[in-house]
Design a protein that fits this description.
By secondary structure, this protein is of the alpha/beta class. Helix content is about 20%, strand content about 30%. The protein is built from seven helices and 28 strands. It has helices at about 5-15, 150-160, 200-210, 225-235, 255-260, 295-315, 365-370, and strands spanning about 20-25, 30-35, 35-40, 50, 55, 65-75, 90, 105, 115-120, 130, 140-145, 165-170, 175-180, 185, 195, 215, 240-245, 265-270, 270-275, 275-285, 290-295, 325-330, 335, 340-350, 355, 375, 385, 390-395. A hairpin with a 4-residue loop joins strand 20 and strand 21. Helix 3 packs parallel to helix 6 (about 295-315). It is elongated and about 95 Å long. The two termini are about 25 Å apart. About 40% of the residues are buried. The structure holds adenosine monophosphate and magnesium ion (MG). Magnesium ion binds near residues 180, 245 and 295.
């Protein structure tokens, strides 16, 4: 059997970062920056007031209280400014340019708020409540480096340096295609022997949570030809495909039967529990990566976390590898099969303990939904005593 590490290494050796595109800012959230973003101007571009108040000469308010005539009003966006001469004050709003002559701003709270003249109660030294040009960014300075994930604040600074478009690696478009003759769309009645399809919902959601775009395709039955038709139709919009089901050792395994003969997708046993049968390879002219995951709901989700998520990060141009783990202390003893890495569903508490949930079968989706972590038990460990330190992956 192939190890989990070897399977992930094969996947990461095949999957490539997506080529950067020039994206409108509106479409750039969650993408990975592929250029260095610099500012053409200093930010702020000009000295401006940090408060609503009065722009004056500090020397004129050395002794307070003092009453000064108000010669002008400057709002944010004002461009016609009268200079502040000795003994004068200008009423100024937050973000408005500081007029020539003034060297300090007195907040309105320190005055009587007058409009024709103002009485200032507290003194302020030079530079008070003035935001200097270039205080945030100098002209030509780098504000974001390539490889940065564009979140709300990063989008803000790209706009803040005047850019409308940016070079970034787009979110991978991932098609999720569930197979199984027994599957029924949730919301429709079940016939004998049928179950509602849950994997395509879980996997599409997991794709979206991983920062990619998930498309849930219509499920197909256990007919390899129908599966290939659906795959063909979906490939046009896919940077990657995830299938569920139809990869085990039984009969009626449409994914395996359809893809194995192509020679570009390998079906292997990976030494893990849950999730042993795994298929991975490339399909179509564009060599689109395809992850053929097992159908059991817990197996497919664990497989996603271990293999697909790191691959999606690689496609985004981000550092990648097995999911990060943290140490916790297990409540109760654990058993694990020899030679397989197991991923036991558990509830991780804030006190640093993790309790396995009841129902560790790979079909027990409700138990998975009650868990928030996977306890990782190494291949060579078969028994973990209660209280032992274990590594856990947060879900
Ligand atoms: P398979 O890998 O196709 O042999 O499926 C293994 C088990 O997972 C079977 O019990 C299937 O009924 C179940 N299963 C397969 N696909 C899904 C799905 N999309 N949603 C829920 N259960 C599924
Ligand atoms: Mg099946």
């Amino acid at each position: 059997m192939k190890s989990v590490d070897a399977h992930l290494a094969d996947i990461l050796a095949t999957v490539r970062p997506l080529a950067p595109l020039e994206l409108e800012l509106e479409r750039a959230l969650g993408t990975t920056l592929a250029e260095e973003v610099t500012s053409p101007l200093p930010l702020p571009p000009f000295d401006n007031s940090a408060m609503d108040g009065y722009a004056v000469r500090a020397a004129d308010i050395a002794e307070v209280p003092v009453t000064l005539p108000v010669i002008d009003d400057v709002a944010a966006g004002s461009d016609e400014l009268r200079a502040v001469g000795p003994g004068h004050a200008v009423r100024i709003m937050t973000g408005a340019p500081v007029p020539a002559g003034a060297d300090t701003v007195v907040p309105v709270e320190w005055t009587n708020g007058g409009t024709a003249s103002v009485t200032i109660e507290c003194t302020a030294g030079p530079g008070n409540a003035i935001r200097r040009a270039g205080e945030d960014v100098q002209a030509g300075e780098t504000v974001l480096k390539p490889g940065t994930v564009i979140g709300p604040a990063q989008l803000g600074i790209i706009a803040g340096v005047g850019r409308r478009r940016v070079w970034a690696r787009p979110r991978p478009r991932v098609v999720v295609l569930a197979t199984g003759a027994e599957l029924v769309e949730p919301g429709l009645p079940l016939g004998p022997g049928q179950i509602w399809d849950s994997n395509s919902f879980t996997l599409t959601a997991a794709v979206r949570q991983a920062g990619a775009e998930g498309f849930r395709a219509d499920t197909v039955g256990d007919d390899p030809a129908a599966f290939l038709d659906q795959l063909d139709a979906q490939l046009v919009r896919a940077d990657a495909v995830i299938t569920s089901g139809g990869v085990s050792m039984g009969a009626y395994e449409p994914v395996k039967e359809a893809l194995a003969p192509l020679g570009t997708v390998r079906f292997e046993k990976v030494a893990m529990q849950p999730g042993m049968p795994q298929g991975f390879g490339v399909v179509g002219e564009d060599q689109v990566p395809i992850f053929a995951l097992p159908g059991n709901p817990v197996s497919s989700y664990v497989s996603f976390m271990l293999f697909v998520r790191p691959a999606l990060r690689r496609m985004c141009g981000l550092p990648t590898g097995l999911p990060e783990t943290e140490t916790a202390h297990v409540v109760g003893a654990l058993r694990s099969p020899e030679g397989k890495r197991s991923f036991v569903r558990g509830v991780l508490s804030s006190d640093g303990t993790v309790s396995p949930v009841r129902g560790q079968g790979s079909h027990q989706l409700a138990a998975l939904a009650s868990a928030n972590a996977l306890i990782v038990v190494a291949e060579d460990v078969t028994e973990v005593p209660s209280g032992a330190a274990v590594e856990v992956i947060r879900l």
